[in-house]
Amino acid sequence: MEAKVRWTEAMQFVGISGSSHALVMDTGPDHGGKDTAATPMELLLIALAGCTGMDVVSLLKKMRVNFSGLEINVRAERRDEHPRVFTGIELEYVVLGTGIDRAAVQRAVELSQEKYCSVRAMLRPDCPVSFRITILENTGGSNA
């Protein structure tokens, strides 16, 4: 894998993946930025949620779980001193569907966290990650 990051102005950078996909990073005015995009640490949380989300969707489909939505809410705590690493992360998997088998969702999440999610593996063992599962019964409204 390869990637590059190009400075644009102030503290804004454009990251370009080896597959030619781009994203913008910035920081707030208190650190010299203009708050035009997510910070690198926010992107790490998004990467974690995206990685485990892809695992869980794939596993739930293989388990034939009838779900219609998945949202992963992420909360993290950071050290006050530099480097301001994450000291703990909590993931909330919100699954929307009809007649969802909680045990199947639990198994899919555990497999992602323990075996498949590469981003989670990169954080191990220095950053504890906990999770909880919320199941919302589909009543004909919008997705999670």
What labels would you give this structure?
144 residues; N-terminal domain of TfIIb; 3 helices
Report on this structure.
The chain has 144 residues and is an alpha+beta fold. The chain folds into 2 domains: 1-37, Single Sheet (N-terminal domain of TfIIb), CATH 2.20.25; 40-137, K homology (KH) domain (GMP Synthetase, Chain A, domain 3), CATH 3.30.300.20. Helix content is 31%, strand content 35%. The protein is built from 3 helices and 6 strands. The strands form 2 sheets. Strands 1-2-3 form a 3-stranded antiparallel beta sheet, with no helix packed on it. Strands 4-5-6 form a 3-stranded mixed beta sheet, covered by helices on one side. The longest helix has 23 residues, at 40-62. The radius of gyration is 17 Å and the shape is elongated. The mean pLDDT is 96.
Total helices: the number is 3
Q: Approximately how much beta-strand content do the residues carry?
A: 25-35%
Report the average pLDDT across residues: 96
Give the count of structural domains: 2
CATH architecture of the largest domain: 2-Layer Sandwich
Topology as a string of helices (H) and strands (E)? EEEHEEHHE
How would you briefly describe this protein structure?
The protein is α+β, with helices and mostly antiparallel strands and 144 residues long. It has three helices and six strands.
Set out the fold topology.
Elements: E1 3-9, E2 12-17, E3 22-25, H1 40-62, E4 67-78, E5 86-97, H2 102-116, H3 118-123, E6 129-137
Helix pairs in contact: 1-2
